[in-house]
Amino acid sequence: MSVRRGPGAGRAVEVLQRAAALLLVATLAGCSLLGEKGGVQGRPEVDRFEMNARVAVRFGTDGYTGNLRWRHTQARDTVDIFTPVGTLYARLVRDAGGAVIEMADGKRDSDTDAGTLSRRVLGWELPLDAMPYWVFSRPSPGAEPERFDVTPEGRPALLQQAGWRVRYQTFFEDAAQVLPEKLELDRAGLKVKLIVSRWGQPAAAP
Q: Is this prediction's pTM over 0.85?
């Protein structure tokens, strides 16, 4: 007995295969977060770093908790977002051509701006244009910060820029650089808390 497939069957199989591959790779990456050495490894820089962190988001009356791995170079950002148990939630990729997000079920969306795209698909914004600077405790180029407070010891405490407030709570004390361990980003209706478990350098461009 033969089975006749409709014209859309091939496309459906392709989407399922791509989703399965993405799920496998990202799940393995999520599991590997548990086995990696924490703290600051190598010498991450603002234009080339990798960050593993726990994330807690509150947007409106909704919330999300999980883990993320963010690989950043001057040419490309790749943000893998995982559930608390290490399975894929979403992958956001940004480069000179714009931003693309792919969910675990294979659904894809794109936009010229990563912040707009993440807000539309996830419900909360990842401002990838400015975040590489903010997580390194410095203002983003372009707009002057409205406020930049430091502690009596000279550590960053609060950065306010482009409608966002970034609060720096703790730092990795044994690092040659001043890299935050706990920080909080918020704007109207949105709060993102990050607890960084590891800073490093990407082995290769993501």
A: no
